[in-house]
What does this fold into?
Amino acid sequence: QVQLTESGGGLVQAGGSLRLSCTASKRTVNQYTTGWFRQAPGKEREFVAAISWSGEETSVASSVKGRFTISRDANKITVYLQMNNLKPEDTAVYYCNKASGNMWPWGQGAQVTVSS
It folds into this structure.
């Protein structure tokens, strides 16, 4: 079973940047479109960004467009989320997983806290 590990979270001031990493335990993940999701306190988990297995196609939520960029490394096992110009409303736990279909087990996520 695939295990996902998110890292790179932290506390940052508004306007700052963070880079999240998502590492999978199996190479099979490079066959799937992979996404980043986030869940803020008291809210449902929401889609943030996705990248195709090839890395050639990406999509981002309108709320983060122009500020967040998703990418994956050459072996396509690690997926990154570069977050720039962070806002307090970006505060959430960030998770990675398949972008659709039967999800893999969720990892622990990476806490991102943006102070104003």
About this structure: Residues 37 and 47 are 5 Å apart (CA to CA). The radius of gyration is 13 Å. The first strand starts at residue 4 and ends at 7.
